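[Q] Does anyone have a clean structure-token version of this?
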Amino acid sequence: MMRISVLLQKNKKIIRQRMSGIYIHIPFCVKKCEYCNFFSLTDVSLKDTFLAALEKEIVLRAAYLPQDKIQSVYFGGGTPSLLSPDEIEKIIDRIRAFFTLDTNPEITLEANPNNLTKDYLLLLKVTSVNRLSIGIQSFHADDLRLLGRIHTATQAEACIAWAQNCGFTNLSIDLMYAFPGLTLEKWKDNLSRVKDIPHLSCYQLSLEPTTTLYRAIQAGHYKELSEEESILQYNYLTAFARKHHFIHYETSNFCKANYTSKHNTSYWKAIPYLGLGPGAHSFDGNSRQWNVADVHTYLRFYSQTPDSQRYLAEAENTVFEKEYLSTEMKYNEYLMTSLRTMWGCDLAYVQSRFGETCLSHLYHHLANIHPKNYTLTKEKLILTESGSLFADCIAASLFI
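[A] Here you go.
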């Protein structure tokens, strides 16, 4: 009995070992999209200098996730597919040298269709990348022009077939809806072309004041879709997902069985992650920090930083900013992310992690939410399909 008990204790320790993720922000684009609010620049001539700085940051930030196993590595941007497969593999090798990767980590590359040629995909297939997230947005030429995408509808169709023929089975397609000019008929057509893809990320247009598209709409060049039209497109999306056996596991994300995104699920479940590259965010469970969204400051700092002691002394407020999270902030963030998922808000977790005051606050303010928008059990608060459309607003109404 004693031996069995010892083995069980060892197994518990293994189960409790934290699994984390690494996000790598590649800040280069050939052209900035009209709707994009992410940090990027079009001066690709800085790429080699950036890659040298990124290698230095990997080394200097190796202690951020001490003793964690890395279950996912995600190349985002920007346009990560502007890197060659050799450059991508070199970054992964650098991560392997300074972090402990899980046995079969999910390694995702965001890519644009115009970069995913047959030759590129064949070379990429022999790297460690095992998941592709392809930013298509629409299969219609007029939509692509309005959004400022530089690929064609033909390239959008072709790159999916090429990726599949090269052996990439874990594919995710990004589509956008509720933007000016997108009719329900075109939205139905876009979805019909991806019904057999294992993962879909379908985002409602979020108009940010700093974007070109926002200014064009404000100037009257385009007409913003009405709320009724947006809801109609979302409702068609969820019905389409059910019909074609997609699991609606997060407000904007749908997958076939066993194809959830490990990396993005980490964000929604408040699992720690490390962000590398200019503008990237990191989270260790108690604090959040974000790298400066300025590639020149980033490059200058890492080119002049020779060792870890100087990094620790000079990095904060120079190349990154840091915020320590209060209990109330952690509670708010947990609500914001958990209520977007099919797993919902774990009430026992709220009580144990944030305290009875936060749980009481949640119950009290839940009375202001329409009952059709959620289900409540002793264990969980989960939004219904109608509620998921307003997930962020509902979460905000429950904030402290």
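[Q] Thanks! Anything notable?
[A] The radius of gyration is 22 Å.
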